[in-house]
Amino acid sequence: SRVAVCLGQTGDVSGFGMLRAGSLGHMLGPLLAEDAPVAKSLLASLCADLPPDAIFWDIPEPNAAAVALAESLGFSRVRTLTRMARGVAFPSHEPDLFYAIADLAAG
């Protein structure tokens, strides 16, 4: 597994992410970032020496910037997941921070 943290100019955490090996390739997520440039920097760090066809990335649909970033890097949709919740529709008050969700194996 790999973990990356991005610090802002004041030393605050501006993003973090994780990548783990899976049976078909590497699974990206969770990845939270304050904006697309931070997310892109984390992705570069986490995936630097991996072939692009060996990375799976589950993006929560409310984050259009994450979808745009993935598409700009050559990723394409291969499946659709349905996340269910009771009460709130998304488990955060700031869904735009979620650039990748933890894969299904993480629960």
The biggest sheet amounts to: 5 strands, mixed
Strand content: 25-35%
Q: What is the number of E strands?
A: 5
Over all CA atoms, what is the radius of gyration? 13 Å
Mean pLDDT over all positions: 86
Approximate helicity band: 10-25%
- The number of helical elements comes to 2
How far is it from the N-terminal to the C-terminal residue, by CA? 16 Å
Based on helices, strands and strand pairing, what is the structural class? Answer: alpha+beta
Overall 3D geometry? globular
Spans of at least 5 consecutive residues with low confidence: none
Helix and strand succession? EEEHEHE
What features would you describe in this structure?
The chain has two helices and five strands; from the N terminus they run βββαβαβ. The mean pLDDT is 86. It has helices at 36-47, 64-72; strands spanning 2-7, 13-21, 26-33, 55-57, 98-100. The protein is globular.
